[in-house]
Amino acid sequence: VTGWDVAAWVAVAVLGPGAVIIFVAFLLDARRLLGRARGGGAGDEPRAAPGAGPHPDPSPEP
Amino acid sequence: VPVIDLAIVVAYFAGMLALGYAVAGRIKGFADFFVAGRALTTPILICSIVSSYYGLDVLFGDAGDSAREGVVVWFTYGRPYTLVMLLAAFVIVRRLEDTRFLSLPDILAAHYGRPAQVAGAVASFFYALPIMALMGLAALGQVLFGLPLWVGAVVGALLSAVYTAMGGFWADSLTDTIQFVVMCVSLALVVPFVLEGVGGFAGIRETLGDDLFAPLGTAPFLYTAAYALTALSVLVEPLFYQRIFAARDTRVLRAAFLWGIGIWAAYDWAVTTVGMAGATLMANGTLPADLPRDQILLRVVSLYLPTGLSGFFLGGVLATAMSTVDSYLLVAAGNVVYDIYRPLVDPRADDRTLLRYTRWSLLLSAAASVVIALYFERIKEAWNFTATILTATVLVPLLAALFLPGRRTPLAGTLSAGGGLASVVIFYLALEAWGMPDDDLETLRLEVLGLEVLRDYALFFSLPVSALGYLVGALLGRRR
Known about the structure:
The structure holds two protein chains of two kinds.
Chain A: H1 3-38
Chain B: H1 3-23, H2 30-35, H3 42-53, H4 56-69, H5 72-95, H6 104-112, H7 114-128, H8 131-145, H9 149-198, H10 200-208, H11 221-229, H12 238-246, H13 250-283, H14 296-304, H15 309-344, H16 351-375, H17 377-383, H18 386-403, H19 410-434, E1 436-438, E2 443-448, E3 451-454, H20 458-476
Antiparallel strand pairs in B: 1-2, 2-3
Helix pairs in contact in B: 1-9, 1-15, 3-9, 3-13, 3-15, 4-13, 5-11, 5-13, 6-7, 6-18, 7-15, 7-18, 7-19, 8-9, 8-15, 8-16, 9-10, 9-13, 9-15, 9-16, 10-13, 13-14, 15-16, 18-19, 18-20, 19-20
C-alpha cells in the first residue's frame, strides 16, 4: 500500500461517512433552520426593498 | 439500463420536484426567494456550496485530464483553488460582513453605479447559463437510455427550472443537500472497487510509469501558471456570493467554506484516482485505447460497480449535474431581473414584481441554455472561457471596491469592467483568427514579436488592461 492509496482511502472516508455526517447535522439543524424561515427569524426581518436605496458601504472608513 | 436503476432515477426526479413544491409556501418576498431570507446555517451551506460548484466538468473532465496528465491535476491545477477559497473565506467574507447585498453585480452598483453593474451582470449571466452541464445531461440520456440529445437537455433543464421557480433558493439549497450526499457517497463507493480492480496505485504505476506521478506535471511553466491563475475566478464566482449573502452570519459561512475545502480536496483525489485507473485500463487493453477522455469515468464505473450500485452512481451523476444546473439558472435569472431589468427599466419594481419576473426568467434562462447547448457548436466551444470573461470583467473593480476606499469613481468601474471585457474578447478573436492549433496542449498558439502566446494566457493580458482602466478612471473620473 502506497501513500497514494492511503490518500484515496482518506478521500473515501471524507466523501462517504463524512458526507453522511454533514447530512445528519443538516437534519438535526433543519427544524431550527426552517422554523427561522417560517416566522420570527431572519427570513421575515424587514429589509430594504431591493433598489430602494443605497446599500451600506462595506469598505472601512478611510 | 436495468429497471431498478431506472426506478432510482425516476424516484430521484420526483423527489426533487416534491421538495420544490413543499418549500414554495415559504417564499414571502424576493430576499426569501433569492437568498433564502439570509437564514442558512453551516450544514446546509456546506452541501449547497460543494454540490453547486462541482459539476460534470469536474467529474468527467478532471477524470479525463487525470488519465492523460496524472496527479498534476490534483496538485497544480486543483490546489490553487484551495488557496483562493481560503482567501475568500477569511478576507472577502469579512469585508462583506453586515452588508445587505443580494448579488455580485449589486456590489458593483453600490460602488460604481449602473454601467459597471450591468457589465458585471451581463458577464455573470453568460457565465451562469449551465450549457456544459446540460450537454453532459444530454449525452448521459443518449448513452444510457438511447434518448435523442434534446430530450436529456430539456428534461434536466425543465425539472431544475420548475422546482427552483417554485421554491427559489430554499428549493435549490434543500435539493442541494440530497444531491450533495448522493454525489459524494456514490463517488466514495466507486473508489475501492476501482483500486481493487487495477491493483492499487502500485498497479497503476507499474502500467503507466512514473510520468503521471509528477505533482508539477511536464507542461511549460507559463501554461501551468495560466491554468493556476484561473483559480482567481473563485473571487468572482456568483454562486459563492449568493451563498455569502444567504448565510445567517460570518461564522457559519466561514465554517462552511473550510469544510467545503476539505470535501473538494477529497472529491478531486477520488476523481484523479478513477481517472488514472482508467488510463491503466486503457493501457492494458481492458478499455479501448481511443476512448474519449470525458467517457473514461463512466466506463470505469460500469466495469466495476454491480447493478443497483451502478444505478445509485447514476443518481450521483444526475445529482452532480442538476445541483449545478439549478443553482446557476437561479443566478442567471437573478442577473436578468434584479441586476439588469430593475436598474435599467423599472427602478421602482416592488418585491412581487421582481419575484414574478425572476420565476419567468428562470424558465427563459433554461430555454436559452438548452438552445445554445444543442444548436450552437461554435458558441459551445467558447463557453469554457466564460469564466475568463467574468474574471477579466469583474475581478479588478470588485477587489478595488472592497479594498481600495477613496479610489472609487463610476468611470473607474466602467473603464475597468469594460476594458477587461473588451480585451478578453479581442484576445480570443485574435487567437481564433490567426492562431495555430497546438495538439499537445489542445489549445491555440500565436507568435507575437517572437513571443509564444497561448489562448490560455488571456488573463495575463486582460487583468492588466482592466487595472489600467481602473487607474485611468480613478484619476480622471469624479467620485459619486
